[in-house]
Amino acid sequence: MRLTRASGLGLGVAMLWFSLLVLIPLAAVVATAAAGGWDGFWQAVTNEQTAAAIRLTVGTALLVTVVNVVMGTLIAWVLVRDRFPGQRALEVLIDVPFALPTIVAGLVLLSLYGPDSPLGVDIANTRAAVFLAFLFVTLPFVVRTVQPVLAELDREVEEAAASLGASRLTTFRRIILPALAPAIAAGAALSFARGVSEYGSLVLLSGNLPRRTEVTSVRILSSIENDNLDNAAAVATVLLAVSFAVIVALDVIQRRVGRRG
Amino acid sequence: MASRRPRTRGRGRWVARAVVTAYLVLLVAWPLWLVAQHTFDGGLENLRGILDDPDVAHALRLTVGVAIVSVVLNTVFGVGISLLIVRYRFPGRRLLNALLDVPLSVSPIVVGLALVLVYGGRSGWFGPGLEDAGLQVIFATPGIVLATTFVALPLVIREVVPVLEEIGTEQEQAAQSLGATAGQTFRRITLPAIKWGVTYGVVLSLARSLGEFGAVKVVSGNVLGQTRTATLVVEEKYLNFDQGGAYATAFLLALVAVACIVVVSIIRPKEEPR
């Protein structure tokens, strides 16, 4: 449908609100970073402590994404293809990290993997804690993107492959994996973006030790608290670039699969 | 070979079940259970302690109030923009569709910074002007509302858009050809069709809004009894060695979050036999 007068007005109001809330503020981050010139930007980003934080954040997020691709696909598989008592409870557990406040997530993880751990595993204030926190908050993404695709997959094709003598591994590699690949990729992109931008769950868990467990978001926050907004904006622009790259990647994936218009 | 296959499949299935269950128990269920356990370590004392604390009570009221305002804003905006994106064709539609997902992948700290740069009272783009007009945004409640609304913005849209795409336009066109106005068509045809999608979106937005931490921390100023929200109380209590208070507040927040998830998982299957 073409826009009518009423819907055009609605679009205008919606765009005004969206601009005031999201677009103009995000543009202000990039504009503030740009106002310092390339040298200022480069200096802020390559500052030893900041660079270490960016390396830790991106490296850990990549590692977590790899784990999520494997575990997320396996979890989705078990939830779709298997039936056993207690499955509904597992379904609920998957979504918990999405709804749980991040600061609570940090406290929750600290109770099992902190100083008072009943397991005797104390990883508080180490890099393993950063990994664990990322793993927790990114849990739902691959599972929830793969699950619906797996549920709609035609099992007759698999049975045909098997009846033609294909082994289970070949069926998985040649039939199932290609069908799931776009969903896995989309889930991986989302979980990477979520990991890179994580803050709240690390506050109590990782100790934010400079050059060891300090992530990029924490660096930006300390710049804000020191009233160095230019520096904060420069580092924030790096994170925004990562988010934007993920959005573009998702759009390309979705267009190839042709799901959302 | 053929006779062995069912057995390996059976064994593989059990291994997969065990691995998945152990992973989810170690990562989510057990830690969550421990927080509940810590909360009730000394009976109801921890919970009573925070509920009797006027500052915590204020923080809880502020959190709920802000969450309600932001859910209403995001529901109205979300349903409206979903209708526009699915039903109408206009230049920039695809770009807008992609941009609407941006808040999901932006770091909460960057959200806070972005809002400070525009609405900050001292050096923001619009902040000084707004303050002259008597409206303080940053370090005040409006800033908390903006931050909370920002982070939860895409949730309603992501639930409503697929439903709108699936139901198509035939019924709406039929209603219109029979003389229904746009308002009647929306109320009688479109709204009943998307009501479950809207409901999940609202529940998810509510959970997200109650729990926002990083963005609120930057824009709120964290003033005791004024702009301190529930999630900020958890941090404050824990860092001040009041672990009982921190666990009790975290328990309340976790309880609401899990309740939201359970509600969604209960109503979701009802939609399938459409």
TrEMBL record, chain B:
Keyword Transmembrane: yes
Domain ABC transmembrane type-1 span(s) in chain numbering: 60-268
InterPro entries in the cross-refs: MetI-like (IPR000515), MetI-like_sf (IPR035906), Sulph_transpt2 (IPR005667)
Compartments where located: Membrane
Major subcellular location class: membrane
Sequence intervals crossing the membrane: 14-36, 56-86, 98-121, 133-157, 246-267
SUPFAM superfamilies to which the protein is assigned, alphabetical: MetI-like
Signal sequence bounds: none
Topological category with respect to the lipid bilayer: Multi-pass membrane protein
Keywords: Membrane, Sulfate transport, Transmembrane, Transmembrane helix, Transport
UniProt GO cellular component terms: plasma membrane
UniProt-recorded Gene Ontology molecular function terms: ABC-type sulfate transporter activity
NCBIfam families in the cross-refs: 3a0106s02 (TIGR00969)
Its biological purpose: Part of the ABC transporter complex CysAWTP (TC 3.A.1.6.1) involved in sulfate/thiosulfate import. Probably responsible for the translocation of the substrate across the membrane.
PANTHER family per UniProt: SULFATE TRANSPORT SYSTEM PERMEASE PROTEIN, SULFATE TRANSPORT SYSTEM PERMEASE PROTEIN CYSW
Subunit structure and binding partners: The complex is composed of two ATP-binding proteins (CysA), two transmembrane proteins (CysT and CysW) and a solute-binding protein (CysP).
Protein name: Sulfate ABC transporter
Natural source organism: Jiangella anatolica
